[in-house]
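Q: Entry one of two.
A:
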Amino acid sequence: MKIYAIALMLFIAAQSAWAHCGKAYHLADQEQNNLVAKADAGDADAAYRMYTYHSMSSRDEKLATKWLDRAAELGHLEAQRWLAYMIAENGSPHQTFGKTPQEAVLKLLTDASKTDGHAASDLGKRYQEGYFGHADKDAKARAAYIHAAALHCAWSWDTLAAMLHNGEGGAADQIEAYYYICLDTQCTHPESVGGQELWELRRKIEAKLSLEQAKEVWRRVDAYIAKERKRSEGRIYPPPLLGTGIPEKQWNEWLKTTDEFEAQHRKQLQKTMGEQDASGNRR
């Protein structure tokens, strides 16, 4: 009986959430007419807004598919990424963008990744998992992740660091691997599960570097972090530590913990590596 009561409560909560979501995305008839006119004239944002209305409010799947396709055709980046995901994961119709699902996903993500780092990271993931085939998949994935990082996509850092460290898709590059893993550890709470995994990889890469190489990377990392925090009012984008939903006070506490952990690690590493260099035991 208790199980049924819990299930009922969860069902009611889900229905309530959907109702609230539907209300938030609702459009009056006149608003829909205005958006349709704009979309017909080539407005990608208007087409995407029609998609969200039919997807989240009217729940008309056929019209939602129509407007998502239209928004993607008009170059809406989020629409292109989302449609690529829907085709790859859910088997959504692909014919507007390619003869096969793979061709459609490749076209959508390639177009979007010209200016969007998240799309480039998605493209790297699809290459890496062999979605487009296995010929040169690692080299293509690595190139996509490098492009994503150049477009300031933090989601690509950990995977790119691992590929550079392991020599996947090209020659190993421990210095660049260290740069990206250091960026990621400074944007992840060190005591979290993800943070501990990142620090494990970071220490493996550190073992391949000299103290001077590590220090040079720290200078690059500090410059990047300072620039990004200034640009985004203290937050790296995509925001670390679960993002903007965290209360500011907790955010600042976590950020302080991350910075302190980084400072302590560098101090200890300089001591350890300096001693090893002095004894001649470090390669």
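Q: Entry two of two.
A:
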Amino acid sequence: VVGGWGLTMLALGPRLTVLFVLVAILLLAIAWLCTRTDVVARLFNRIARSMPQRFAGMLAGGGEQFTNYFKKVKPGSYVVAMVYTILAYTIIFFQLFDISRHMGMGLSYWQICAFVSIVTIVTLVPISIAGVGTRDLLYILIFNKIGLSEAAAVSFAMVHFVMSVLSSMVIGMVAWQWRSKYYK
């Protein structure tokens, strides 16, 4: 999502390009903070204190396990992951744009980027399994605003879901094969 918005921002102008660079720096800072045992341990302890006692035990030692994982990963691999994310979402956006053209929707590439990014962010909220239903409703709401039918929205939502799953599977298989390359 960040990659797709990044490409959109780069294409839309210098002010947004600066914003994208700031977001990228923020994400890298968050990734660096994940390697700091003290920061993560405090966060896990704070979360554990706010949870019911029977679940709090699950987080015992979790902060240390979490930071140990990030310490195993080479710093350059975060940049590689960001590049792969940008590439993956660019491909997904172009695929969905092409499919929308063949469905006769008349949407621009930038509309596809915006709609797919918004829907992807909202479907991250754990309301339903894999965002099914939530994704459909969002596309219906968005497409109704621009004059497209509910049938087109549900069809596009289904294609988006299938494309996301297939793309994730292919990229995941490639990443699985290369995973040992980025460990110390």
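A: Comment on entry two: The chain has nine helices and no strands. The two ends are 28 Å apart (CA to CA).
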